[in-house]
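Working notes for the structural subgroup meeting. M.R. asked for a predicted model of this chain before we commit to crystallization trials. I am recording the input and output together here so anyone reviewing the notebook later can reproduce the run.

Input as submitted:
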Amino acid sequence: MGEAMSYLGTSASPKAIKRPGRPPAAAKKAAPAAKKPAPAPKVSGDLVGKLVALLKQSKDGLGAEKINAALGTTSKDLVKPLQQLMAEGRVKRFGQARGTRYQAA
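Returned structure, recorded in token form:
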């Protein structure tokens, strides 16, 4: 066998040769610790008041783009206030996806 190893150009024993495959169980890395979710942002009463006033002025309701343009907000800023107002029954939602419109109840 030593003759065959010298022919192959290596003097290492067959057990010392690294072979591809799954690493031993002890070599597995531990999973990272779970992160705590960020606290929910508080809804500004000022934004809610402006939003309701704006929706009351519109007969047919407004889409998120028009609300953002009028109030100078982003869609992300409107998510919680709109959810709160719909839960309270002060705002109604019509349509789906990009066609969603909001109207004061």
